[in-house]
Amino acid sequence: MDFEEYLNSLRDKTVAVMGIGVSNRPLIQLLLERGVDVTACDKKDRAALGDIAGELEAKGCRLHLGEGYLEGLSQDLIFRTPGMRPDLPGLTAAVARGSKLTSEMEAFFQVCPCPMIAVTGSDGKTTTTTIIAELLKRAGRTVHLGGNIGHPLLAETGTIAPGDVAVLELSSFQLMTMTQSPHIAVMTNLSPNHLDVHKDYAEYIAAKANIFTHQTAQDIAIFNADNDETLSLSAKAPGRVRLFSRKREVADGVFLRGTAVIARSNGQERTVMDTGDIKLPGVHNIENYLAAIAAVDGLVPDEMIRDFARTFGGVEHRIELIRTRRGVRWYNDSIASSPSRTIAGLNSFPEKVILIAGGKDKGISYAPLGPVVNEHVKLLLLCGATAGVIRQAVEQADNYAGLEIIDVADYQDAVSIADSRAVEGDVVILSPASTSFDRFANFMERGRVFKQIVNALP
For residues 343 and 438, is the Cβ–Cβ distance under 8 A? Predict the structure, then answer.
């Protein structure tokens, strides 16, 4: 079904959109412009929404607001927002009454006229997605970036040409109910994550697997051969399987031989670049490049990949260098909302660092973080709801040797102490190992606040 046919099919239906946040507003506006009967639902009340409530009503939108916003839904089609479980009582009751549940991304997969490359995983999604998109742009392709990165694409489908490429970052929440898969799927890695929303790890893995489950024999799925979970899943892919690995050679995919990045396919291999070409610090970013190269192999010239890697400084909030002051480097790694992400960040530096960590608990174990902190950290500053469990993980680790741990009230306090203790050559990094929701709207706001404080140092 093409985009116009899809929109025309909604004209005689009633539609509910869950959430009136920035990401859903283009969808609501599009549906209203096409004469669709739209009800916008949000947990916020009218006062909290502000001017947007009146603006939507003036365009013919109905509003269903407040704590009971999921109650009494009876629309023909309900768009759930990412992060909203599809089995919430209000949604299941609506489905039982005949409503159909979908999402902006599911609808986009139905109508997108061009090839799609999508990336998922527990860590490295955004950087890998960004590398893929930027490489394709350099090769002259028109790229549409969406999913968890960029902006919602459904409302822009009318501007997408068949020769373009859609590059998507997909979360487990977006993938939970997907019944279609992209032409090229990339799975960076898997580790326990988002267990505060998913019922268990098995459900989380099953959701991630939807990125390749619905592929055909003509499609490509790319997996991390160094991760047991993703390697196991690769056996279930219906299309061509490509692997990437830092630790061993693979028959079809991209791997390291010493410091050389080798691409191999159909018994032929070539050296794409050297790890020394990669400006981004850390072995996890080498893995991100291996995954991205496997995805764009044959689409982007090797010379272009090398040139890009030498200049690409990374994505905001991902081991982002904020400033160097008096010989001390300050980094913002606010994206690190899980222990595994912080572990990767700490492993990126050869020297011991001053670490600022803590936030909201996601319901996962912090035990693996303890030994790594003891090995890579010279001073640990903790704030937020997970300060206690991080301290416990560090102090109970076998290699604990009395690392100094200080509880701080907030980032202002943390930066002040770190600044007073750091000496020339030190690294100070915010890598929370926890979500931001105890104090911030999201990791971006958390990172921006931290950067403002650091940049305000005289």
Answer: no
